[in-house]
Amino acid sequence: MVEKKLRWGILGTGAIAHQFAKGLQDVPDAQLVAVGSRAEETANRFGDRFSVQRRHNSYEGLVADDEVDVVYIASPHSLHKANAILALEAGKAVLCEKPFTINADELRDVIDVAQSKNLFLMEAMWTRCFPIMDKVRTLVADGAIGTIDMLAADFGFREPFDAESRVYDPRFGGGALLDVGVYALSFASMLLGKPARIAGLAQLGPSDVDHRSGYLLAYDAGPLAVLYAAVATDSPQEATVMGSEGMIRIQSPWWQPCRMILIQDGNEQIIEAPYLGNGYCHEAMEVGRCLAKEETESPLMPLDESLEIMDTMDALRSQWGLRYPME
Predict the structure, then answer these.
(1) I want to staple 144 with a disulfide (CB 3.0 to 4.6 A). Which of 72, 139, 275, 302 is the partner?
(2) Is 194 known to be catalytic?
(3) Inter-CA distances, 1 with 4, 28, 68, 166, 288, Å
(4) Catalytic: which of 22, 81, 92, 98?
């Protein structure tokens, strides 16, 4: 008996949509069957690139397509809430690109719709699904480095300033925090849970989004997380977990990891766990695994945790006098 492939539709045709479409090619039990764009020309161009036969010149057309089982939301941050709800209301499972939404209230609305319809919903925090991250979680849980004392992670890159670009325009949820700071915050959350105290500083640019920002998180059990992100400065892009009996260093780029160093008693052990293709296949595989078990959320990226991370980002922005959407 041949099992039916999970049929994917991609909402959006930008750079991240292209990367995800490439990733799906490495998932044996998945098939990209449809794409939705706001323009027929871009839908056709994307369809030609990835041999997608079903092309829709509207998002509404994509989510209404009976041949689609699950929708990957690849639109700008500020459209995630509306697009995710659109797909859920049409009865589709949803994998939504990070950040899930641009504030916690928006995410609560999306989760409410998914739960009311008993549909699968997951934030596409692809880093969590990489094989090396499974090894990190296991090492920490097994006490390989003792208890965690501190955690550090960064994600910075340099994008030329353009006030109307996705990265710098507040209307699109621009800025370092939402774009790449969310990776560091999610990593800290994965290993340490919800912070008890949050402090952050940001350098705001001409368009009033954070070009560079840093976050200090404290936890009731004692650990500290020191994190920073940037869209106007290159950074090492490394992550380190410092424990009472050892250390884990995830080498650059830690958010797309395949290699780490375990340090115990001064001895270093290199641990490798290659990912498939460009790495995006692993989050698609997790969605397939969950849907096969009729689960409505992933244990790797639970909805409650996504919401806690969004609450943390709201708290940080409030310290900088920012709120998305801007009023």
Answers:
(1) 139
(2) no
(3) 9, 15, 22, 46, 18
(4) 98
